């Protein structure tokens, strides 16, 4: 039996037929479900108690109390009475304008294929009525609603978007965690009494197809029993065949173990990686949660977002694009506008994004600002132009063309004229179009077929 056969050998372990053992060698051997690589773009949603002060960052509580950042201390002293605690913010997470269907409509219009909802951030507040988070959850306090259930139900009723759930392993000020931390993680009360039970709870209840783990608290994966949980997730859970996970399962696992790599927030290496990866990034460059004090210049423009999407996909990654809703449950117009603009662009150019793979080169070796993808089934190379050439033509130096077989099309328009260049490549002549005649804005895609 060869190595590949051994990797898929079904073993009888602990009373069940188990394909994966609780070791990183076994866990990492699991093939990534195809849907994730095909999807290319998802929407991240950071929503929690931090959305009430909506100042500075979703790390508000830590910056205010844990690290004593002066601006946060000043904000509280100017706007809230003495003795006001972070827990006092929770009743004001009202969600009175939250409508899950409206959110799903916006996410679907963005062209995204999956979402990742924050079920619990490092503050410990669960957005569902967790029995392991008594009186510190969205059913007991604040909206008095299971927000995770409302979103997951609307997602499955109104769209084909896949459900992903974010969950923080640690909690900044949970006394069980700080006790374990003080014992150098030789005790494990917090993971076994709080974090792991929550993970089993959200998997069994909501059946997400993506689990986005975060917040290891500088504790090793053995403390979190990460491989034990993942073995259950891949062997026995209700989503064992389709679920995808990331790499944040302990302080030494990031960019090393897991289903796909995130490596760092806003990670965009600019070159092809050997392992599937995701660029999680926020439209607001300064925060993942909503900020009332944000300026227009803090938000990425649609041109910057399209550039990031093209670069990410060309290098084999997925883009996870974050928005931060308000405490009352609104996705503000600037976030909605950006998402709908991405969707408008994908309606024309999505052919070169969805279900594509990285080509033999990622960006053109001569002409700057040109990125490539490839579709084997169509035998097509897609070249993305992030700026319209002023002289009416563009040189693509890397495709190997045939004067007989090669055809060149501008997506959303029609076939284009071209001539070969030496020693390789081609010069493509773009039409003189008025703004109204342009097939799209913010970036254009040239499809080449009949190339080697």
From TrEMBL:
InterPro entries to which the protein is assigned, alphabetical: FUC_metazoa-typ, Fucosidase_C, GH, Glyco_hydro_29, Glyco_hydro_29_CS, Glyco_hydro_29_N, Glyco_hydro_b
Signal peptide: 1-18
PROSITE patterns: ALPHA_L_FUCOSIDASE (PS00385), PROKAR_LIPOPROTEIN (PS51257)
Enzyme Commission number(s): 3.2.1.51
Domain (Alpha-L-fucosidase C-terminal): residue spans on this chain: 362-449
SMART domains linked: Alpha_L_fucos
Chain segments annotated as coiled-coil in the UniProt record: none
GO MF term (any one): alpha-L-fucosidase activity
Record field: catalytic activity: an alpha-L-fucoside + H2O = L-fucose + an alcohol; a neolactoside IV(2)-alpha-Fuc-nLc4Cer(d18:1(4E)) + H2O = a neolactoside nLc4Cer(d18:1(4E)) + L-fucose; a neolactoside IV(2)-alpha-Fuc-nLc4Cer(d18:0) + H2O = a neolactoside nLc4Cer(d18:0) + L-fucose
Superkingdom per UniProt: Eukaryota
A single Gene Ontology CC term: lysosome
Record's keyword terms, sorted: Glycoprotein, Glycosidase, Hydrolase, Signal
Site note May be important for catalysis, residues: 280
Residue span(s) of domain Glycoside hydrolase family 29 N-terminal: 19-351
Keyword flag Cell membrane: no
UniProt-listed PANTHER family: ALPHA-L-FUCOSIDASE, PLASMA ALPHA-L-FUCOSIDASE
Quaternary structure (record): Homotetramer.
Family the entry assigns: Belongs to the glycosyl hydrolase 29 family.
Name this polypeptide is given: Alpha-L-fucosidase
